[in-house]
């Protein structure tokens, strides 16, 4: 029997286990999935926890219930990948593989910036990219009634690049609802030259920031957090004052990649952008946030990657050429507050544009325009995540590769 080993039982790893369990010949292949954690988190829900829109129980479930029968679930810490000898060192023992899928995701690294991970961490300096950080921030926001709120991105790439913008928009609506918006000054600070990574989308989002009286500070390459004087300072000595700093720290791949010699400077694994095969080892494939491909690190991207990767795994074991198919497709809702949201759809080559999705001229979802439909689409995605996406079930009318149908490509 041959072994296919999946490292990581988050969104990408769980989807791959569900895709492959019914497709690999059971008399020839054993499938193993390794993860030390017992809880599976719905990470897009972390955005809503600080504003009391979601509860804790809506964003977490026992991970084991999503691992299909026929897959060996190993709950151990991953120590090292020995790619030369096709084995993985675990906390207690080793496991050999014929084919390896790396789905270990990315994590925040506040220790990378001087002063960020200090005694003020989760007192006046917060993240919301972790379950613990989102809950701590929720408790802080409940008592925060006036002062300077700074929403900050340290550097790119980050998981779900639209999430910090959504946080700023939701904060605007949250403080309006509490009747204290005029006493809370909101500033959005980014290392980019605009509000978002894509130029056309940046123009739309800049208008929304202005409309909501949210200040925008661009090209801010942070050097340090001055916790004594409540300032963030960049390499050009630009200073931004805060009373409450909500930051997205540096995102990095799992430390296992550094220990294994498989990662780049940020521990992301060099990966073919269209086949998702490791550039260094042909029997290793990489998916989701663990890759270094220039796509968004978002759940929708992992979903589209999983469909291409499943096909390529089957082609690989049958000694056939891989599909150079994945196009970087991302499909993301941007919550803008007051029960409205935008939807953006783009890939490696095509920026987000206006139009309708998924049906040309009908929608019902509008691209790059605020609508209530888009807001409900965002909220409905939680049910889809738990009941469809994780189980590897195709989402009707949503294609793995970006379609230009219904889109105003030339705007």
UniProtKB/TrEMBL annotation:
One of its GO terms (molecular function) is oxidoreductase activity. It comes from the Bacteria. Residues 3-296 form the FAD/NAD(P)-binding domain. Gene3D superfamilies: FAD/NAD(P)-binding domain (3.50.50.60). It holds the Pfam family Pyr_redox_2. PANTHER family: FAD-DEPENDENT PYRIDINE NUCLEOTIDE-DISULPHIDE OXIDOREDUCTASE, PTHR43755. This is Oxidoreductase. It comes from Polaribacter gangjinensis.
